[in-house]
Batch of 4 targets.
Target 1
Amino acid sequence: MTSKDPAARAAELRATLQHHAHRYYVLDAPEIPDAEYDRLFQELQAIEAAQPELLTPDSPTQRVIGEVLPGLVPVKHTVPMLSIRTETDTTAAGAEAFDARVRRELELGEADAAIEYAAELKFDGLAINLRYEAGVLVQAATRGDGETGEDVTHNIRTIGQIPLRLLGPANTHPPLIEIRGEVYMRRDDFERLNERQRERGGKTFINPRNTAAGAVRQLDSRALADKKLSFFAYGLGDAQGWAQPATHSATLDAIAAFGLPVNRERAVVAGSAGLVAFHQRIAAMRDALPFDIDGVVYKVNEVALQKRLGFVSREPRWAVAHKYPAQEQMTLLRGIEIQVGRTGKLTPVAKLEPVFVGGTTVSNATLHNLFELRRKGVRIGDTVIVRRAGDVIPEVVGRVPGERRAYVPNFRMPRECPVCGSRVQREKGGIDHRCSGGLFCAAQRKQALLHFAGRRAMDIEGLGDKLVDQLVDGGLIRTLPELYTLGLAKLAALDRMAEKSAAKLVAALEKSKHTTLARFLYALGIRQVGEATAKDLAKHFGALDRVMDASVEQLLEVNDVGPIVAQSIRTFFEQPHNREVVEQLRAAGIGWDEHEGEDYTSPKPLAGKTLVLTGTLPTLSRDEAKELIEAAGGKVSGSVSKKTHFVVAGEEAGSKLDKARELGVPVLDEAALRALLEGGTA
Ligand code: IVH
């Protein structure tokens, strides 16, 4: 219950915020979504602004919260690690308000020129200060309360992206430089970690941010072995004997040149219009980014102007964080339904009170499996936390602690498939419940078709779920190969199917027949065979028959294929009806060039060779060149050493070219590289 009296409410909010701040910052185990915390925080700020006499020095609004855990050694920051003011107005007005404030504080008039800003992503991880003395990483510390953090050097040293020694010749290394940035976890690394946890029946992690933050503050760095962390630098701490460039953007360039990762989605923009455009551009690509961001950050670019603007209560006046809609929200769990997937797996799906999260309205979210649902302790009627980030399907990550008004029975899996009535089974020791109906089950048939037609599989445009429902429910298709016997007449007879769209689908089916072995293998929907494994199989074996006839031992020789995957592939191709499906698909005209398996067919002209790329090549991008070199068996390294075989130099090649000359490493241009790739000699 919330109290009406502002003084009492402020005290209540302070206690609540303190509790949640401790859960979040110290224990890395929040009970409520960040957005809910922000709401409470803002409510307290509003009360304190209206009635300043209610403000107390220990209010959470007055300091950066975070305690030093017993066990990690405290580190006093020589330059405090500040926090930034947050602009929670997620519309363009947020950017305009910041620019207006900066101009006012600098006493600029309308006639004065636009201010130059450095605009960056706001990474959602944990702030870290890296201290380099004479180019060597001597200490890494968390922010803590801004004055005193914790020494986490032992863990930070395990992050491959963070150089233990700065790049460049020793005489260019400042006696002291502190580089600040964010340790975070990529979404794919996070998904992989949770996938592994699920396979083992272990506890899954809530989100990449908490996982990264928790990992960094472990006492024992071995706990990081299964968690791949990443880092982006975004600023400077203490520095001595270093001439800092005149702008923030140039400072980041210099930091990047020292070998630290600096995100490339940053820009120098002019005035509020530039900020708004940046905010919108990044919003459009937010879901496609490989990591979570919770907003963007704007910084006045000129260091001299930053100095003039200064600070208010530990927040610089020259920077602001401009938020995007939160990726986690609370909502009511109204019910739980069962969805039957391609492999017959029964997934409990949460039916939610619709909630706006991560930029869209979500009313369904996965609960993954019975065990995870039980571990999270969610029951119908609970308030739950929903997360939606990127292209990942929305999921329920936990429940908000609170009393239930009435007894709610624990959710149980049905004994019979809700779609086809077949018996539901669970493998001994397994986690997943499955419908035993196989292709008799309409749900499995539909999902198998959708998977087969998917963009990354056979890429049959226009074959979506509505059409698949009709095809299966109408009894037009029972097996995958029957897709290719559909013909114009049958299709055009379907509901809501005009002649024109039927013709389009027929053309798409025809087009899909020319594919690649990797796509075909993936499209078959073999359990445990995702896109990456399908590519590895195609590359390793080169021909379908070789994959179909491979023994478990032979399969184990493939990159990243372990016993479970190998057995699953073997089992699939041992079943006569699966072999028949493959034969019928081939008979329908599906084909590919059987020379994808370079291991078998093409020679590897760059096997065992290490190359370094520098400068801009006339036609190839960095990534393209890298891909070609790797496909030819070569390795691409970031720095030149005596072990480098070739340096490929383009226009504006820098210190790497000098180094190559110094060490006598052969230097190639793009034409020479292409000749090498084709098997010639340099
Ligand atoms: S600048 C004086 N830039 O956001 C300015 N911070 O309170 C200091 N963050 O936890 C911070 N991305 O770790 C800055 N591009 C970015 C950032 C960023 C994420 C985090 C930072 C801190 C919070 C700011």
Target 2
Amino acid sequence: MGGPIVVVGSINMDLVFRVPRFPRAGETLPGTEFHRFPGGKGANQAVGLARLGADVKLIGAVGRDPYGKELKDGLQKEGVDVSRVNETGVTTGMAAITLSEDGENRIITIAGANRQVTPEDVLAAKELFREAWGVLLQLEIPLKTVQAAARLGQESGCKVFLDPAPVAELPRSIYNRIDYLFPNSGELEALLPAEDDNEARAEKLLGWGLKTLILKKGDEGSSVFSGKDRRAFPAFPVKVVDTTAAGDAFAAAFCYSLQAGFPMEKAIVFANAAGGVAATRLGAQSSLPSKEDILKLQKEAKIDEMDY
Ligand code: RIB
């Protein structure tokens, strides 16, 4: 299925501090390693798609500063079309990531230039949306921009994907513009705190017009809720090094696989494997897999679309 995938999202420089454990309040804790990686959920998902061979256009913003230039150049080298990535007078987005020995993370972001991605930037890309196959969104840019992109995507006949991270309160009206929503368990709970459990939350969102919910459950795999269909898919057993961007790898691989014409079941298995590979590697964009990496893990784990 032809046409580009438009990612409207954030671009960050990630500063990663490896720690033996997470510090307590008021404590100064010596870390063991420091790394700097290109990141940001929008940029990560754009790179994830490009590495798999998709035609990707990113709408975003960086600062007119050295990090902004480095990140934009890096995206271009990955094959992402950055002609709609604006250079602004606001500093480039940043993320401070503490990473524990067992691969868990705590992330603090400063939006910076990501806050300058506006509904006007989306509307200025009307022609692009018209020819696009899909629109992939996250929540590290202003919500009104995400809403504008979901709306224009739907009106243009695109498949609309939303990774609701970092989680924020969403207006009920957005759900009927979304074809695929992929929260993790904590995010789903935060979206609908009044419901008793995630099954009830999923039913509520489907009732509000969401087409398909894919619940990411980390090492427990993922569950799908779509129409009357309810299914669970296993996770891939991997040795976790760093879970940063595993969700971004999932999002990119899922979109790519659907666009390639695979049924949803197969796309979810491929996406679970992509997240699994990313978790075995350090960093955000540095961890995103190629098609060969993903298929290798699927082969090793002997998990294919029939194994759920
Ligand atoms: O999803 C991982 C990303 O979250 C990191 O790259 C960091 O920049 C934050 O946005």
Target 3
Amino acid sequence: MGLPAYDLTGRTAFVTGAGSGIGRATAVLLAEAGATVHCADVDEQGLHETATLIKDQGGTALGHPLDVTDRARLQQAVASCGRLDVMAAVAGIMHSSPVLETLDEDLDRVLNVNFKGVLYACQEAARSMIENGVRGSVVTMASGAIDSGGPGLLCYSAAKAAVVQLTKTLATEAGPHGIRVNAVAPGWIRTPMTDRHGERQAHTEAFMARLSPLGRVGEPEDIAHAVLYLASDASAFTTGQILRPNGGVAMPW
Ligand code: NAP
């Protein structure tokens, strides 16, 4: 590879949510950069497809069918990596309900997957890196919802705001071990998650594209490149940061 700072040859990465969308694009790109990639997801078929994509391009992928809210299973999967250099905690779910109609079970489900699932991944990764003396990188997945909120987004944006605080706090605690912790907060990205918005999707996509100075929504690869930057030595002096690949939608202009 011509750019050594981005070269992950000889490194091991773990990607949650690797069976679809942003997680899949991230797993594929990290493998292209040379990493051995451990892919985790609840969706076994999606996992299989991602692993096949990586192997077809000559990379190395291992699959871990698991739910990120199952701490014991996640612990076992991370332990099976041996030395771990990169954790990309991407798995997440969308939920929309007005505040006055939000049920306890909605809040619990979204916080469990989108916050606790990320917390467990971060904890297992940081423990592994400290034990093995690895000066690794942890990348979490927040969202543009941390800046904008929006009707119906209480559960989702609260969980993503918690991910930001986790990222900043762990960055301060793990920094002395040489471990960097950063978040990516994507704007509207075309993935199966956003596709599930159904008929609202075309309208929202057009709206989001109009808000961007670039006049388009994002693709999963746009976010994968941000994760690669944060995972690699290219960002060696970057920690506790929130990177916003959002087409400039949050920029006052
Ligand atoms: P996606 O296409 O739905 O992919 C998410 C993957 O995570 C799916 O394979 C999903 O499986 C899996 N997953 C869900 N719950 C899980 C669990 N408990 N344990 C393990 N895997 C689980 O979504 P995406 O758009 O790529 O989103 C990826 C991340 O980016 C999420 O954290 C999301 O909040 C964040 N994000 C997305 C956007 C966007 O515009 N797309 C914007 C900002 C932030 P199932 O399909 O079976 O549920």
Target 4
Amino acid sequence: MQKFGGTSVGTVERIRNVAKRCLAAQRAGNDVVVIVSAMSGETNRLLALAHEVTKIPDAREMDVIASTGEQVTAALTALAIQEEGGKARSFLGHQVKILTDGSFAKARIKTIDGAKIFDALKQGKIAVVAGFQGVDENGDITTLGRGGSDTSAVAVAAALGAGACEIYTDVDGVYTTDPNMCKAAKKIDRISYDEMLELASLGAKVLQLRSVEIAMKHGVPVHVRSSFSDVEGTWVVKEDKDLESIVVRGVAYDKGDARVHIDGVEDAPDSMARLFGALAERNISVDMIVQTAAAAASSTGKRADVTFTLPKTDLARAKPFIEEIGKSLGATGARYKEDIAKVSIVGLGMRSHSGVAAKMFRILADKNVHIQAISTSEIKVSCIIPLADTEAAVNALHEGFGLG
Ligand code: ASP
Ligand code: MG
């Protein structure tokens, strides 16, 4: 089971290399199923075309368009394998079939029918499956969200009972932090599903979050590696004693969120339920939430200030609702801040070590980085900081927790 990302199939020459890799794996005695992404840049190009035609394109038609990128690569890859003297057959999402729910652009896989793939394998063929796409119960084409071919790959691996899922990409594995941000970043040899899940949701972009969830649920070991070399990459696996002994495995950052601050909300038992309920109804997902007693007392009773973060891309859409619900809760005003970043440390060992958060705050303080909000889980600590301090913070944390 192998998956090739956009840069790995970015040119005809590279598709030929993919074909050679697949044939080598088959010659080594494996049944080979390969999942392909669209050629690099192609999905962006397709989505942009739709936006040229109309400002707010219909979601169903968007998926029909976006899914064609993978359709092209799947057939080209099958042709390249045949050209090398092998046998191959391409499959689209609806042919396999990869059944999803009907949420266009972010569909979730429900079931996968492996029968056609098994048939192809039995005939000695390499099965080439288009990633990113599925089909819903109405027969409409769906896509799985940006980076969704990872999820296709892991889900197909789980459905077929593959021993592992190899994700070929343009980096040679998962790093302790973004190497573009920190020169001392190192490749991680093994990482647990839980840690990878946190890193993926905190801004590391190597694997789509959903693919890690599926890998964890079905216990599929995932090997993230480079398609341009033969070196071992990073294995994403079940946790064990070795993995647990590391306190901090990686540092992540995310510049995608904006901060909202609402002043003087009436401090009633259902205030928070009404505020966040209104946002949830509009499909706006918030992340960190901090509620504090309002600085300014009021004649009308107890007041609270609320700070939370949401995706920058949702801010424009959310503002009117925030103003509206804020007013109905008696708020005196709302402020928005886009020049923020979230930096996070992640590691299984935090469960059994104390003082990890304190150490993080000390490291940031020594760099004069002002912390604006904090959130923690069992295996991560996240801080909202000024955007301009991101690089300094990431580097300091990376070094301070001995990752370099
Ligand atoms: N081609 C899709 C995207 O760019 C899916 C993928 O590459 O995983 O998001
Ligand atoms: Mg990707």
